[in-house]
Design a protein that fits this description.
The chain is mainly beta and 81 residues long. Helices cover 10% and strands 53% of the residues. It has one domain: Roll (SH3 type barrels). The chain has a five-stranded antiparallel beta sheet with strand order 4-3-2-1-5, covered by helices on one side. The longest helix is centred in the N-terminal third of the chain and has 8 residues. The termini are far apart.
């Protein structure tokens, strides 16, 4: 067990209320505050920003990301911003 993580969804649980980086199919990246998720890894993010080439492209606000479009989710503190 590392950082209280025993199962994959534990990472998402620990990241609730914090910024996460989400990589989608089609080379899209978003950074936002994780509000909620379900077993399909559908995510609700707030203060969401689209990132392109490491720079903020546009601010989107409250966003629903469908789980089957997500490649990975990472705590934003471990990503370069």
């Amino acid at each position: 067990m590392v950082n209280g993580i025993e199962r994959p969804l534990d990472l998402l649980n620990n990241s609730k209320g914090k910024e996460v980086l989400v990589q989608l199919k089609g080379d899209k990246q978003f950074v936002g505050t994780l509000l909620a998720f379900d077993i399909h890894i559908n995510l609700v993010l707030d203060n969401t920003k689209e990132i392109q080439d490491g720079e903020m492209k546009k601010s989107i606000g409250l966003t629903f990301l469908r789980g089957d479009t997500i490649i990975f989710v990472s705590p934003a503190s471990t990503s370069k911003q």
